[in-house]
Amino acid sequence: MNIILISNKLARTKSLTLTGTHFLLIISVFFIIIVLSSLGLNYLSLRYADGIKSPLLRTLLVNPQEERHRKIQLHLHNNLNVMAIKLGQMQAQLLRLDALGERLTESSGIQSQESSINHVPGQGGGHAVLPTEEITFSEFNRKLQALSYALDERADRLGALDSLFRYGRLAERVLPSIMPVDTKWYSSGYGYRIDPFSGKRAFHKGVDFAVKAGTPIRASAGGVVVYSDRHPEYGNMIEIDHGDELISRYAHASKRLVKLGQVVLRGQIIAKVGSTGRSTGPHLHFEIRYKDVPQNPSRFLKMSG
């Protein structure tokens, strides 16, 4: 490529010949200038970006990607502060669960290490003022996850204890465990005895309480009345179904105070003591049947302590 130079001071024109090598050198110089300018702007943006107050200069000097990264960091920092507050709330909740679990454990009488709800090793040492360090997001996430597992574990254990107590209270109410009349001795026990009418050895399916006529008869446990009528042998008789094929029977009453299908509560008065049916005098004949098989009432009544 030839370039012709014309000047009024020159007597004649001059020509320059540019080869491919010349073009390559020129392009290289321009490229180096552009690279150096970019590096210089990047250095200024990193070193002086925070101190630049002019929006125009800041726009020119600060790398857009660096600005985006700074905004993301600021957003994460703000969110981390909020989540740290949530972590403190969850730790307080864990302390309350531990306190409740400890009370439930003591009330249940369970002393095994496996059932211990709140078992924190002793800690101590001198107080030292250390420089504060911000918790990283990954570290915080691990702590939060561990705390979540701990809360779930505490909730499961407390749920198990609560179910245990609920079952205990329910069993106490549906098992015939309180005395049906106000006395502490049997006039005739469960098992074989001499029948007062035949004089022969016979099996007595319940227990007898010899008390005055008119003495209140109470339901030994809650349930539903499945029989309230007069029986040829038992006289005025009441049967209460406690569920799971467990029934209590109250016989020889002078008066029945509950009806068929009625729901009765533990300790509720259901009849009055009498001497109806096959009886030699005022008393209560009390039976407990499981799947229609007579059971020894003393085994149940002893549960009431």
Automatic annotation (TrEMBL):
<dbReference type="InterPro" id="IPR011055">
    <property type="entry name" value="Dup_hybrid_motif"/>
</dbReference>
<dbReference type="InterPro" id="IPR016047">
    <property type="entry name" value="M23ase_b-sheet_dom"/>
</dbReference>
<keyword id="KW-0472">Membrane</keyword>
<protein>
    <submittedName>
        <fullName>Peptidase family M23</fullName>
    </submittedName>
</protein>
<feature type="transmembrane region" description="Helical">
    <location>
        <begin position="23"/>
        <end position="44"/>
    </location>
</feature>
<dbReference type="InterPro" id="IPR050570">
    <property type="entry name" value="Cell_wall_metabolism_enzyme"/>
</dbReference>
<feature type="domain" description="M23ase beta-sheet core">
    <location>
        <begin position="203"/>
        <end position="297"/>
    </location>
</feature>
<dbReference type="Pfam" id="PF01551">
    <property type="entry name" value="Peptidase_M23"/>
</dbReference>
<keyword id="KW-1133">Transmembrane helix</keyword>
<keyword id="KW-0812">Transmembrane</keyword>
<dbReference type="GO" id="GO:0004222">
    <property type="term" value="F:metalloendopeptidase activity"/>
</dbReference>
